[in-house]
Amino acid sequence: MKVGLLLPLSDDDGSGAPAWPFIRDLALQAEAGGIDSLWICDHLLFRLGGEATGIHEAWTVLTAVATATERVELGTIVLSASFRNPALLAKMATTLDTVSGGRLILGLGCGWHESEYTAFGYPFDHRVTRFDEALRIIGPLLREGRVTYEGIYHRAVDCEILPRGPRPAGPPIMVAALGERMLGLAAEHADLWNTAWFGLPDDRLVQRLGAMRAACDAIGREPATLGITVGVTVRDEPEEAWGRPGASAALVAQPQVIGDALNAYAALGIAHIQLDVQPATPTTFAAVLDGLARHRAGA
Fold first, then answer.
1. How far is the C-alpha of 92 from the C-alpha of 12, rounded, in Å?
2. CB-side exposure of 128: number of CA atoms within 13 Å?
3. DSSP character for 82?
4. What is the pLDDT at residue 17?
5. pLDDT digits over 277-299, tens only?
6. Is 15 within 8 Å of 47 (Cβ atoms)?
7. How far is 136 from 155, CA to CA, in rounded Å?
8. Least confident stretch, 10-14, 25-29, 47-51, 134-138
9. Apex 275 CA angle, 274 and 281, nearest 5
10. Three-state SS for 218?
11. Counting runs of H as helices and runs of E as strands, what totals does the chain give?
12. Which residues lie closer than 8 Å to 208 by C-beta, 6 or more apart?
């Protein structure tokens, strides 16, 4: 099972969005500590309860991380397909895969935070249909290098990606999905599926795994061909070990807790875990990396 860490981009603690040297140093610490992947979330602005929270632009930072690192995979958890023209996004992904030496995982979703759509002038309606159309452009361009598609919201006419990237089939596509229709799109188009957010594995995860198996069965896909990834929240202190809204309680950033949780996910056959550590600091990253070492040692 692969294990990744989210890099901080936003002003979560009120002290301002982290500076690039801080993000870079965390990335290098994680890579040196044996982490398999580094992940970036994609938002333009958070506006909750009337208060705005800032965040860096995802693709720019991920490109910088690609040039600072050498080994780790680089993922988006997840890019909102609504923010970028799908053909251009496929071109961007191919280029970043080239720059990184074939390390990109292209995570995609349909978006959810209406305030940022309104603020930056993007339509918020028919997001799943728009996402469906975007996948029918992005997928063929990455995997085959060419597409012609005419939809309601997106079109690409004799579009071609040149030069091609370092991998003949392009970077793997990961789709974040929860509802029935989105699960169907993930089953049809994705190499990896992301479900989030969790602490320890729970009944919600079991139910979601069953729903994805049903989605694969509905289109005749062998479920084992779809890699399962799970986003897991980690908090620094036990009294702060709250999960995201609607999610289970977060893990506590203690090495044995992390190691035990990773063992539990591995036993379920999960392909990749993405750990969202709050706050993201050298100290909390060190605790997670210690837990990862315990997991790999079988402790």
1. 28
2. 11
3. G
4. 86
5. 999 999 999 999 999 999 999 86
6. no
7. 10
8. 10-14
9. 140
10. helix
11. 9, 14
12. 178, 195
Query: Can you say whether residue 154 is alpha, beta or left, with left for phi > 0 and alpha for psi between -120 and 50 degrees?
Result: beta
Token couple for 72: 């780790």
Phi, psi of 192, deg, nearest 5: -135, 150
At 46, phi and psi to the nearest 5?
A: -105, 130
Q: How far is residue 264's CA from residue 103's CA, in Å, rounded to a whole number?
A: 27
List, in order, residues 6 or more apart from 252 with CB less than 8 Å away: 234, 235, 236, 237, 238, 241
Using alpha carbons, list the distances in angstroms from residue 48 to 52, 85, 116, 247. Answer: 7, 27, 10, 18
- 25/206 Cα distance (integer angstroms): 36
Q: Give the number of other Cβ atoms within 10 Å of residue 20's Cβ.
A: 14
Distance of alpha carbon 148 from its chain centroid, rounded?
Answer: 27
For 50, 158, 233, 248, 251, the CA distances from 196, given in Å and listed in that order, are: 25, 36, 9, 10, 14
Task: Taking residues 219-238, report their average pLDDT.
Answer: 94
Cα end-to-end span (Å), the chain: 15
Tens of pLDDT, residues 234-269: 998 765 555 566 667 899 999 999 999 999 999 999
**Pick from 79, 261, 257, 102: which is nearest to 174 by CA?**
79
* pLDDT score at 208: 97
Domains (range + CATH), the chain: 2-297 (3.20.20.30)
Measure the CA–CA gap between 277 and 256, rounded to whole angstroms: 15
CA atoms 254, 257, 259, 261: torsion sign: negative
d(CA 110, CA 127): 6
